[in-house]
Design brief:
By secondary structure, this protein is α+β, with helices and mostly antiparallel strands. The protein is built from 4 helices and 9 strands; from the N terminus they run E-E-H-H-E-E-E-H-E-H-E-E-E. Strands 1, 2, 3, 4, 5, 6, 7, 8 and 9 form a 9-stranded mixed beta sheet that branches. Strand 5, helix 3 and strand 6 form a beta-alpha-beta unit.
Length: about 150
C-alpha cells in the first residue's frame, strides 16, 4: 500500500532497509533525546515483527510510526507507537496524513481498533483525529501519558 499527496509519499518500510534504519535516527531525535533517553539494542529487538510506516517528502524521511498486534489481544487490535514527525515540518499535516494511512493499513489487515499511549502534549492531536481516552493518566518514560483508542 502506498499513498501519494503532492510531493509526499506514505509507505510501508521494509525492516532493515535504508529508510527504516534512518527512521531510528528520526525517532531518537524527536522522541528520546528530549527526555535524555537513548535506544538500547534490546528496545529494538521486537521491531522486526512490527510494521514501520512512514511519510517521505521527495527522498527525505519526514515522519514514522510503528504498528504491532496488541499484547494479549486478537489480531483485530493494533497498537500504534513511536510516532515521530521531523520537528522542522511539524504543523504541516504530515502526522495526520501518516495516522490516516496507518488506519487504512490496519483496516486492510482486518483490524477493527487502534490503541496507543499518547504523551500529554500529543493528546489534543489524537482527540482531533477521533481518538478517545481510556482510563487515567499514567507515567511512561518519565512523562504523563493517556491510553487512547480509535475504532476503525
Amino acid at each position: 500500500m502506498m499513498l501519494h499527496a503532492a510531493d509526499l509519499t506514505c509507505s510501508l518500510l521494509e525492516f532493515g532497509s535504508r529508510l527504516q534504519i534512518a527512521s531510528l535516527a528520526l525517532r531518537d531525535r524527536v522522541l528520546r533525546k528530549p527526555l535524555g533517553l537513548s535506544y538500547h539494542p534490546d528496545d529494538l529487538k521486537v521491531e522486526s515483527a512490527e510494521w514501520h510506516l512512514a511519510v517521505r517528502e521527495g527522498s527525505v524521511l519526514r515522519a514514522v510510526l510503528l504498528l504491532r498486534k496488541a499484547d494479549g489481544y486478537s489480531s483485530e487490535i493494533l497498537k500504534m507507537r513511536q510516532v515521530a514527525v521531523d520537528e522542522h515540518v511539524q504543523g504541516r499535516g504530515l502526522g495526520s496524513l501518516l495516522v490516516r494511512f496507518a488506519e487504512d493499513f490496519a483496516r486492510e489487515q482486518g483490524c477493527r481498533r487502534i490503541e496507543l499511549h499518547a504523551r500529554k502534549n500529543a493528546v489534543p492531536f489524537y482527540r482531533k483525529m477521533g481518538y478517545q481516552a481510556e482510563g487515567d493518566w499514567f507515567e511512561e518514560v518519565g512523562i504523563p501519558h493517556l491510553a487512547m483508542f480509535h475504532n476503525l
